[in-house]
Each structure stands twice: as structure tokens, then as C-alpha cells.
Amino acid sequence: MNPTAALFVMLAIGVILGGGAMALVGVADRQRQRAVALMEPRLPEGVEDVLGALPQIAIVADPSHNVVRATAGATTSGLITRGGALAQVVQSAAATAWERGDAVETTVVVPRGPFGRAGVQFRLRAKLLPPRFVLVLAEDMTEAIRVEEVRRDFVANVSHELKTPIGAVTLLAEAIGEAADDEEQVRYFARRLLVEGDRLARLTREIIDLSRLQAADTLEEASTVDLAEVIAQAVDRTRTAAEARDISVGVRAPDDLEVWGDAELLVMCLQNLVTNAISYSPAGSYVGVGARRQDDVVEVSVTDRGIGISDDDQQRIFERFYRVDTARSRNTGGTGLGLSIVRHIVENHGGDIRVWSKPGHGSTFTVRLPAAEALRPDAGTEAPVTRPVRIPSVVDPRRTGK
Q1: End-to-end CA distance of the chain
Q2: Using an 8 Å Cβ cutoff, are 234 and 267 in contact?
Q3: What's the whole-number mean pLDDT along residues 2-30?
Q4: Looking at the DSSP assignment, which residues form a beta bridge with residue 109?
Q5: How many helices (H) and strands (E) in the chain?
Q6: Among the CATH numbers 3.40.91.80, 3.30.70.930, 3.30.565.10, 3.40.50.1820, which is that of 219-400?
């Protein structure tokens, strides 16, 4: 055979062998793909559609606790690790469901943040999902539990707070009966009875106001409100208390400030703040009320030269029935609900409130509300309300010689 013919024969053999090798590679690849497909988790038909319609967080995991499917929010809930597995607190419920072959319900707490404080409470329901999966449904119960605790605490606090004035009224009524022959004693006890009656009436009224505010989702009587008029009415309602203690209340507010809301509620809000400032200020001092606008936010500040509030108390002053100075509150008839009412009114108007205070130097309460044009029923969305900042104290004219 000549060299040329031999070369062609070798090439032909190479083509045949190469084609066979490629065919074998193709067969092996198809077999590998079929094996992988058999190993990959397959959910029952329609399960993924159901998962997408569930309101709760839903997680599907395999027997090794690896997450196969999860709905939106599951990855940020703390129920799934960064590696894509069930968190330790969830694994127990899933394992129990596999062992029993039945649904398992439990409650778990997932730490919020690296320090594990203020954990999120989930109600879990784990159930087998044939052929070899488990479905975990998680419902965030944190807010519901908090509301129930608030309701329970509120009832307990109200019961406790009502005991004092009711007990005092009962004792004073008995004292009047026993002192029927002593007109001076009768008049004294009658005056005390009126004081306790007024305190009881005020407490009842503020409990009703607070309950109404907590139940309200929207403002029923909302309209454009002239803030200068609101401030004027609030100050006028506190005039008697201010004059009784020789305290001057000064106002510095432009006439063109408008907010969207309930005028009467806003008057109540500022009245409570001014009343507090008067109650906690020394006789003969000054209370200032100032207002200004910054972009789409209107700020109102109430400043006093009173006893001030410690850092610890500042964390709690907006709680119901909390009093910074119990003795002073008792003497002034304070119920401990005023600032809680203020906070709810402000929040219902889409605003916020912050306090600046230094013991021995006084306090400044700053209310921030969306301007009228930034928050209307036809605006579609609420105006962004930034965090409050301390407004410079209104200048006391007595100190400037004006």
C-alpha cells in the first residue's frame, strides 16, 4: 500500500473512533442529567402556586433541614440561616413533624439583632409534605402579643389608679357623716371631697380620650387647621393655672402655618404640653411656645425653665400613668395620662414628638407635623416626617429687658 492510501485509511479510522467517543460522551452526559434530575427535589404539583398565595411566611425543607422553597420575607425573618437551612429554633418543630407524621404547632422566639434583644415571636405550624418534605408556616405574633399585654396592663393600671380617688371619696363621705355637728369640719371635708371628685372626673375623661385615640386609625374631623389659632386656644385654656402661679406664657408663631388634622385634638395636645410646663415650673417663671416651618414639616415647641427630666425618665414619660414626680402630680391633680394622650394625637396626625431636657434647667417638647399641603386626603401618600430636633428656646422677655 502506498503512503497516500495508508494516510487516508488512518484518517478514516480516526474519524470512526472519534465519533464513537463523542457518542459515548453524549450518552454519559444524558445519563448524568437524568440522575441529577432524579436527585433534585420535586414538589408536588400545585404546591408552589399555593405557597405564593399564602399570607404567612412559608418554608419547604428536606429531611436534612435544607430549604427547598421559601416565600418572600422568609430570608429576613431569621427562620432561615445564611447557608439556606432551617434555623435551629425551627429545626425542632420540623423534626417532630417528621417523627410523628402529623402537624406540629409551637411558638418560637427569633432574636432580633446580634445581641438577641427584643426577639420576634412566631407561631409555627409544621406538617409533612409528601413525598419527603416538611412545610413550615410561620405567623409573626409579636404585635398581637404586645397589644394584648398593653391591654392587660392598661386594665390593671386603670383599676389601680381608680382605687385612690374612689377610696378617698368614700373616706371623706364617712368623715362628713361623723362630723355632722362640726360645721367647720364639714366644710373642710366637703372641699376635699370636691377635689377628689374633680380628680376622679378628670381621670375618667382622660381614660376615655386615650381609649378613643388608640382606637382611631384615621382623623374623622380632618381639615386645614390654622396653627396660630390652635396655639392661642391652648394657651387661653391654661391661663387660669398660669396666673395662679404667676407664670407668664409667651407665644412666638407666624400666622401662615397650617397643618391638616383635627383642630380640637391639636388644641388638646398643646394644652396638655403647656399645662405640664406650668405644673413643673417654679412660681414666677416663664413658659414659651414657639412654631416654625422647615420644608414640609411644621414644628411646635413648648419650653419651660422647670425641674427638668432625667435621662431615665425621658425613656418612659410617654407611657400611660407614668409620673416623673409622684408627689407633685398628686398636688396638681395629674393623672399620668397627659403625655400619652399627646403622643397618640401627634402620631394620629402623621407626626412625631421628642423631648430635650436637662435636670435643673428645664425641658423642651417638640411636636412635628406635616404641613397642610403635604398631607391631604387627595395627596395619595403621607408626607415624610423627619426625626424631631430641639428648637431653640423662646427668649424670656424678662431676661432681655423687653
Answers
A1: 127
A2: yes
A3: 54
A4: 121
A5: 12, 12
A6: 3.30.565.10
H/E stretch holding 301 reads strand 297-304
Per-residue model confidence (pLDDT) at position 303: 94
Superfamily of domain 50-140: PAS domain (3.30.450.20)
Lookup result for grid cell 467517543:
21
Q: Is the pLDDT of residue 329 over 60?
A: no
Q: How far apart are CA 264 and CA 317, in angstroms?
A: 23
Is the predicted pLDDT of residue 115 greater than 60, yes or no?
no
Preceding omega of 131 cis (within 30 degrees of 0): yes
With 90 as the cut, is the pLDDT of residue 71 above it?
A: no
User: Residue 125 is which amino acid?
Assistant: R
pLDDT digits (tens, 9 = 90+) for 373-396: 765 444 444 433 333 333 333 444
Tally Cβ neighbours within 10 Å of residue 388: 20
14 phi/psi in degrees, rounded to 5:
-65, -40
Under CATH, what is the fold of the domain 142-215? Helix Hairpins (1.10.287)
